[in-house]
Design a protein that fits this description.
This protein is an all-alpha fold. It has a single domain, classed as Ammonium transporter fold, CATH 1.10.3430. Helices cover 68% and strands 0% of the residues. The chain has helices spanning 2-19, 22-40, 43-84, 90-117, 147-152, 158-179, 186-209, 214-219, 227-245, 276-295, 304-330, 335-350, 358-381, 390-408, 422-470, 496-511, 515-520. The radius of gyration is 30 Å and the shape is globular.
């Protein structure tokens, strides 16, 4: 046992005493770490790895920041629309602007992104629906069904691309809320937003931005950030909804209960905006968000400054343009016109902000201001009621901005590799605009009328259910109920043409709030202030 006592005295106890001193432990740790670093540290390889990683992260971060700016545009739309509408409609306008992104996120994840970017053909994607539903987090790979997209965006973040495209899709649906404000039912707008973002918008987006879109590949159709794909699509869908709903009661003397020429014989009503301060703030928020809208669509971060500057110049030119053009005639243009002139310039430059010079951007913005004035006048002449001016801004300026690409664009790698033939480019832009408009008109009519008929049957079922519950208690009062506005016998047509007219009438009435709800500022779900 002598050797054991010697080991304990001369080795174990000194080591334990050494470990009791924290400073000594610290120095030992540094010594071991130094030895490890001397064997395994390679300064050149590490510098190259860090440099490459930082560049990749910068691209991802900018894409997320740009997407966040686009998402923040929803606050601008909410402020703009609530401020321009009547006070009693502020709550339901704000509710629609909140729910539209909730609906858009789910619809685009479930259906839209797969249709737009999933593997398929030149018309629509056929894979990639409900992607990564049960996949573990933190995976940056392109999942099954997106092989073509992976080739397009090699080395980029799949989830980052999805997020950026998602906020674009939500913007298209938000445009519709302004055009149909103050007289559409909440659930009609809810389901139309789902159909637009889940089906209609992704199809047009694939034609232009998809891996093998037929407009981009066959006609060289150019739409940098979505003057047509986003804004014209939303404006057209809103136009169809506005026509089906009809004007607000009192607008140009409109009376929804009258028919034919007698509809516009009532006393015209003056509509007072809720708060133009909110609308002005909304315009500035949208202007800020547009820097991400256009700036996030670049193929290289070095192009961001040029895109942002052309966007700023076009917006400023649009605002000045409407003041000069309208002010020379009426001397006192309304503030809402200045707001829409700025937004019109932003929409107009969206299709070409990376392709054109600063002078071209100023001209595009100026003509966009003219488009706002002309389309507003055309809508009034046709008795189409657009409470916030969404159709002139997004549809009118969206069409002009897309045509302007053909007028001003030149060869510009990596966006435009071949030399531009001006006549062919303008023709390609025109064919693309007409093709997308035709598709959205057809699908919007199907969606609006289908949703209207569905709401009709749901309300008819609820009506009959309430009747069956109350028939024993108050059979005489049921006939006097103000909610009994649907008749089941109205579905029986006398002829095919009369049947079609009846179905259209039923759908239209089912989409629109009742006279009592419109008077109180309710959309059937959310009440007024």
């Amino acid at each position: 046992m002598v050797w054991l006592n010697s080991l304990n005295q001369y080795l174990v106890l000194p080591c334990l005493n050494l470990l009791n001193h924290k400073r000594t432990i610290f120095y030992i740790f540094l010594f071991i770490a130094g030895l490890f670093g001397a064997f395994f540290y390679h300064p050149i390889a590490r510098a190259q790895t860090n440099s490459q990683t930082e560049a990749d992260y910068f691209v991802i971060i900018w894409l997320i920041v740009a997407g966040a700016l686009v998402f923040f545009m929803n606050a601008g739309f909410a402020m703009l629309e609530a401020g321009l509408c009547q006070t009693r409609n502020a709550v339901n306008v704000l509710a629609k602007n909140l729910i539209v992104f909730c609906v858009s996120i789910l619809a685009f994840w479930w259906l839209g992104f797969g249709i737009m970017f999933g593997d398929g053909n030149s018309l629509l994607g056929q894979e990639g629906f409900f992607f990564q539903t049960f996949s573990p987090p933190w995976n940056n790979y392109f999942p099954a069904g997106f092989e073509e997209l992976a080739n397009m965006y090699a080395g980029q973040s799949f989830i980052g691309i999805f997020f950026f495209q998602l906020v674009f899709a939500g913007t298209a649906a938000t445009i519709v809320s302004g055009a149909v404000a103050e007289r559409i039912k909440f659930w009609a707008f809810f389901w139309f937003s789902f159909c637009l973002v889940g089906i209609a918008y992704p199809i047009t987006g694939r034609w232009v931005w998809g891996p093998d879109g037929w407009l981009a590949n066959n006609l060289n159709f150019l739409d940098f950030a979505g003057s047509t794909v986003v804004h014209s699509v939303g404006g057209t869908a809103g136009l169809l909804g506005t026509i089906l709903l009809g004007p607000r009661k009192g607008w140009q003397g409109y009376e929804p209960n009258h028919r034919g020429k007698d509809q516009f014989t009532a006393q015209p009503k003056q509509f007072t905006a809720y708060n133009l301060t909110y609308s002005t703030l909304g315009c500035l928020i949208l202007w800020l968000g547009w820097l991400g809208f256009n700036g996030g669509s670049v193929k290289a971060v070095a192009h961001i400054p040029h895109v942002i500057v052309t966007t700023m110049i076009a917006a400023a030119s649009g605002g000045v343009s409407v003041l000069l053009l309208r002010g020379l005639r009426l001397n006192k243009p309304p503030l809402s016109l200045l707001i829409n002139g700025i937004l019109g310039g932003l929409v107009g430059i969206t299709a070409s902000s990376a392709y054109v010079t600063l002078g071209d951007a100023m001209f595009i913005g100026a003509v966009s201001g003219l488009c706002v004035i002309l389309v507003e006048a055309l809508l009034e002449y046709c008795r189409i009621d657009d409470p916030v001016g969404a159709i002139p801004v997004h549809l009118g300026c969206g069409i002009w901005g897309t045509l302007a690409v053909g007028l001003f664009v030149n060869q510009l790698p990596p966006y435009i590799e071949q030399e531009v033939n001006r006549a062919e480019q303008v023709l390609g832009q025109l064919v693309g605009i007409l093709s997308i408009q035709a598709l959205i008109i057809i699908l919007s009519l199907v969606f609006w009328l289908g949703i209207g008929m569905t709401l009709y049957f749901v309300e008819l079922f609820n009506e009959q259910l309430k009747r069956s519950q109350k028939v024993k208690k108050s059979p005489h009062n049921l006939a006097k109920s103000s909610r009994n506005k649907y008749k089941s016998e109205s579905l029986v047509p006398d002829s095919p043409l009369q049947g079609l007219i009846k179905y259209l009438k039923i759908s239209r009435e089912a989409l629109r709030v009742s006279a009592e709800e419109e008077k109180t500022g309710s959309d059937g779900t959310f009440s007024s202030l």
